[in-house]
Specification:
The strands form 2 sheets. Strands 2-1-3-4-5-11 form a 6-stranded parallel β-sheet, with helices on both faces. Strands 7-6-8-9-10-12 form a 6-stranded mixed β-sheet, with helices on both faces. α10 links the parallel β6 and β7. By secondary structure, the protein is an alpha/beta fold. It folds into 2 domains: about 130 residues, Rossmann fold (3-Layer(aba) Sandwich); about 140 residues, Rossmann fold, CATH 3.40.50. α1 packs across α2, α1 packs across α3 and α11 crosses α12. The radius of gyration is 24 Å and the shape is elongated. Helix content is about 45%, strand content about 15%. It contains 15 helices and 12 strands.
């Protein structure tokens, strides 16, 4: 079956092919009524733009790049899925670049990969967005970029951030309201802005209640990776390691918060293996509101961040004209209470 062309749509609507092209390319110089008629015809006829041809005509690649880590997490999976959907809506394709910060810099990864693709814009999640050499290269190449939760030089670009502090404080307040007074934290690398903010917010919220640091046992994510000793780990594996470290003590915590839901699911699995009941003996909460939070048994209490909205805003900023002004956009985070948290036990387990 022959593909529908611009000329076909022009004939249906009774306008020139150039006018149809303007609508496809989001040219503002088309009347709203004509734009709607053309958009309706495109939808009904099933017209799909030829991205390769558009790239040649406009000297643009119609590609938006994104950096992703080799070890998957719900945050990055949802970010990529949502960015793909948003790219399709704006007439772009999404190019993925795997980036392992333990092996090479984000700038080096860009030099040998996405730079050859000549992307029109790049989404920089943590920690790629804090590689200043990479930002210099993108500026040099004239490539627009949006950073997600950057830690440094916030004035340098548009950035989109979840309200990590408020979401984490809500978890801490939830623990406190349920009578918990001994806490565990499986924390991300403090060099990652979201990890540092969540750590500081969790500790700060508890200390504001009069809790001392001695009542908060912290396990570092990087130490769990080192303890595992290889690259074949999952976040749930590391959560189990962290849970074992926190729980196999004389005075274990009665409430544990982890950097994300997958780590929390690992803590729950390890607690159950040790004969510790969740939530009767131990409350566990994560961050993100991922599939892991809903599939875990019991289902996880968590802080929900709007990952899909963050991805959609990033793509819209890169695809839109004119370029959005540099600013920090904050997205709300909300507490979702499920079955993994409850009132603190009367005595230690």
């Amino acid at each position: 079956m022959r593909a529908v062309t611009l000329e076909d749509i022009a004939g249906i609507v009774g306008v020139s092919a150039k006018t149809v092209s303007r609508v496809v390319n989001k040219d503002p110089h088309v009347s709203p009524a004509t734009r709607q008629r053309i958009s309706d015809a495109i939808e009904q006829a099933g017209y799909r733009p030829n991205l390769a041809a558009r790239s040649l005509a406009t000297a643009r690649s119609n590609l938006i790049g994104i950096f992703v880590p080799p070890a998957g997490s719900h945050f990055f999976s949802e970010l990529v899925r949502s960015a793909m959907r948003a790219c399709r809506e704006h007439g772009y394709n999404l190019a993925l670049e795997e980036f392992d910060g333990r092996r090479e810099s984000a700038a080096d990864t860009y030099r040998r990969g996405l730079r050859q693709q000549r992307c029109d814009g790049v989404i920089l999640p943590p920690v790629a967005g804090d590689d200043m050499d990479l930002l210099d290269l993108l500026d040099q190449d004239g490539v627009r970029y949006v950073r997600i939760s950057p830690a440094a030089q916030l004035h340098r670009s548009l950035s989109i951030n979840a309200d990590h502090a408020r979401g984490t404080a809500a978890v801490a307040e939830h623990f406190w309201a349920n009578g918990h007074r001994r806490f565990g934290l499986v924390a991300a690398n403090p060099g990652v802005a979201s990890g540092r903010i969540r750590r500081e917010s969790f500790i700060g919220a508890l200390m504001s209640r009069g809790i001392g640091l001695e009542a908060i046992e912290i396990v570092e994510f990087d130490s769990l990776v080192d303890q595992w000793g290889g690259t074949d780990w999952s976040l749930i594996d590391l959560g189990r390691l962290g849970g074992r470290r926190l729980l196999d003590t004389e005075a274990p915590p009665t409430a544990i918060f982890t950097y994300n839901d997958e780590l929390a699911a690992g803590v729950v699995a390890e607690a159950q293996a040790l004969g510790i009941s969740v939530p009767r003996d131990l409350s566990v909460a994560g961050f993100d509101d991922s599939d892991a939070a809903r599939l875990c048994s019991p289902a996880l209490t968590t802080a929900r961040q709007p990952i899909a909205d963050i991805a959609a805003m990033a793509v819209a900023a890169l695809a839109g004209e004119p370029q959005m002004p540099y600013q920090a956009i904050s997205c709300p985070v909300s507490l979702v209470v499920r079955q993994s948290t409850a009132t603190a036990p009367m005595s230690g387990f």
